[in-house]
């Protein structure tokens, strides 16, 4: 937990330093869309968009895995609640494990 917090803080500091060192503007053209913005802002937004696309691309697999896990949990809980398993009983005629026949009498 703390390692992740420290890593995030260091990454944020690097982003601020990067933004302060790159104040120049750049043009962005995408099909019919055209805008201007600082280099740092454009790169940070592009990075954020890439992270969002990456997370959305893993969403179907996560949902399938969660659904399968829930099915397995229900399957595991189902038989134990409806039909309890009784422990095996030993017949009184058989000797105790590790004992001799004279011990059984």
Key words describing this protein structure:
105 residues, 3 helices, mainly alpha, two-stranded antiparallel sheet, single chain, elongated, 2 strands, 65% helix
Describe the structure.
The chain is mainly alpha-helical. The protein is built from 3 helices and 2 strands; from the N terminus they run αββαα. The protein has helices spanning about 1-20, 40-80, 100-105; strands at about 25-30, 35-40. The protein has a two-stranded antiparallel ribbon. β1 (about 25-30) and β2 form a beta hairpin. α1 (about 1-20) packs antiparallel against α2 (about 40-80). The two termini are about 65 Å apart. The model has no long low-confidence stretch (mean pLDDT about 80).
State the secondary-structure class.
mainly alpha
Task: Please tally the helical runs, counting DSSP H or I stretches of 4 or more residues.
Answer: 3
H/E element string?
HEEHH
Task: Using the alpha-carbon principal axes, give the shape.
Answer: elongated
Low-confidence stretches: none
**Mean pLDDT over the residues:** 79
Proportion of residues in β-strands: 5-15%
Distance between the termini: 64 Å
Task: Please identify the oligomeric state.
Answer: single chain
Summarize the amount of helix as a percent range. Answer: 55-70%
Strand order of the largest sheet: 1-2
Radius of gyration: 32 Å
Largest sheet: 2 strands, antiparallel
What's the number of extended β-strand segments?
2
